[in-house]
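**Protein fold record**
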Amino acid sequence: MPTNLPPEYFDIEERYRAAQSTEEKIACIEEMLSVIPKHKGTDKLRADLRRRLSKFKSTSEARKDAGKQTSPYHVEREGAGQIAVVGPANVGKSSLVGALTNAKPEVADYPYTTSRPIPGMMPFENVQIQLIDTPPLSKEYEEPQLMDLIRRVDLILLLVDLQAYPIQQIEDSVALLEEHRIVPIDRRDHYPEHRRLVFKPLLVLVNKTDDERLDADFEALCELLGKTTCPLLPISAVTGRNFDRLKPAVFERLGVMRIYSKPPGKEADLSAPFVLKQGGTVEEFAAKVHRDFVDRLKSARIWGSGVYDAQMVGRDHILHDGDVVELRI
């Protein structure tokens, strides 16, 4: 049976072959698994990738157990997604991460206060999302390890200052990322034939839109940019303005969904969802619950979108955010 793999799979596969570190290989395999269509023709390929992923993760864990020193730019993934907060110096990245998470980055008026990545967890409804405060994007102080970190994350939040030439900040930041083969996914059409590029979802946060008096400036910025850039959202890291819009926008841009497990004969635990990529199947959910369940899975009952309560479905059934699943082993 043909596999019918999408073009992006081959781009990721090429990056996988060129990857030097175990962490990069793990990230590439996870990306490949996320874009492979789920049908019988890809079963063998997906199984092979899962075996390789397991092997690399075991190797990575063994290295950690051996006490080998890791780079400060290697940040362990936690929560529903890993997000890099990037941007020029003094736009408020540390203030934003400090306001949204449990992290305590140093905040100062002088540039380059942040010299290494600082992670923190942002709560959104019943999940946690990892934000990473990063050193400034700068042509004068390029850090290759920072670019490696950005390649590995699930989403980029580009923070700019509404009151300090935001168009120039956006253009310079995107240009620097693209020089390092990191392209906003909204600009994919600009690179139809280029491989070895990493396409990442990107959301532009326009900081220091502190109150409604500055909304006109933000609207003017959007008009000047037109449709040439990624989605923009006005916020204030100091006052917390529009944080209620920021959190759901981040979750939506991550492209993930929450699935709840229901043990047979018991109520579902709605406080602790499993997180899958959008388009994930019952089989992928079973692997999240327990790796042995994949081989033993017979069917599942579903409560949620597009089904009637307790509908029986097969392992290829596509799940939706908020679905409750009872696995039949």
Remarks:
- Residues 7-65 form one domain.
- The CA atoms of residues 38 and 316 lie 7 Å apart.
- The first strand starts at residue 82 and ends at 86.
- The mean pLDDT is 88.
